[in-house]
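Bit of a strange request maybe. I'm writing a small parser for structure token strings and I need a real example to test against, not something I typed by hand. Could someone generate the tokens for this chain?
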Amino acid sequence: MSFQIILGSASMARRRLLTEMGYEFTILTADIDERSIRKETPEELVVALAEAKVDAIISRLKSTGQLEEVSQERLLITADTMCFLLHRLIDFEVVVSYGQIREKPSSKEEARSFIKGYSGSQAAVVGSVLVTNLKTGKRRGGWERAEVYFHDIPEDIIDSLVEEAVTLNVAGGLTLENPLILRFVDAVVGTSDAVMGLPKALTEKLIHEAL
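Reply from user aminoacidic:
Good idea to test on real output. This should exercise your parser:
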């Protein structure tokens, strides 16, 4: 089946992952105020944000007449990712502090605080994917979780990470693929593409379901 894909994200990692999946696509960002949307859990929040991005992009497409009938089906892929600390293990069960949800840092100071918190600790990442068929209106979504365990991160590495432009543009202030941080990652429980913001297997499944 022939179809077009629009990636509703400015994330370089998501672009790379979707390219690795073998898809060609165009980019159209939502530009919403993410901090105005709040939910009780990270899972609910990432799903709500992906939905809000779809609504914003569809509204823009309608206003410019780009949702007129076309011969090909068009799929809009939106996603969102949240990072939060795992406090401790009790009877081998992870206890999560939802009060420490980490979105994109609002400043270098907040980014530094985020990264220092990962040193010698553990973080969890929850990411949502929503695939919307713009021709039929069908939406299919889901979320996936992964955990990252860190070695101690030296102060000079934290200083370097804080000065990188990308730090303020990614959830939690870190990108797993960054060579500066990668050597301080002890283990990843789950898939690295889920940590990077677009779990491939889930995305592929949702694409087929939306079609």
